[in-house]
Amino acid sequence: MTLALTEEQTMIRDAAAGWAAERAPTTALRALRKEALAATGHDPALYAEMAEMGWTGVTIPEAEGGFGMGFAAAGLIAEQLGRTLVASPLIGSAVVAGAILVMAGSAEQKAAWLPRIIAGDAVVALALDEGPRHDPTRLAFDARCEGADWVLDGVKRPVFDGTAADAFIVATRTPGGLSLFLCPADGPGVSRAALRQIDSRGAALVTFAGCRLGAEALIGAEGKAAAVLDRALDRGRAVLAAEMLGSAQAAFDATIDYLRTRVQFDKPIGAFQALQHRAAELLAELELTRSAVRAALAAIDAGDADEARLASLAKALAGRTLRKVAQEMVQMHGGIGMTDEHDAGLYLKRAQAADMTWGNAAFHRDRYARLSGF
Question: Which of 54, 63, 180, 371 is least surrounded, with the fewest CB atoms within 10 Å of its CB?
Answer without folding.
Answer: 63
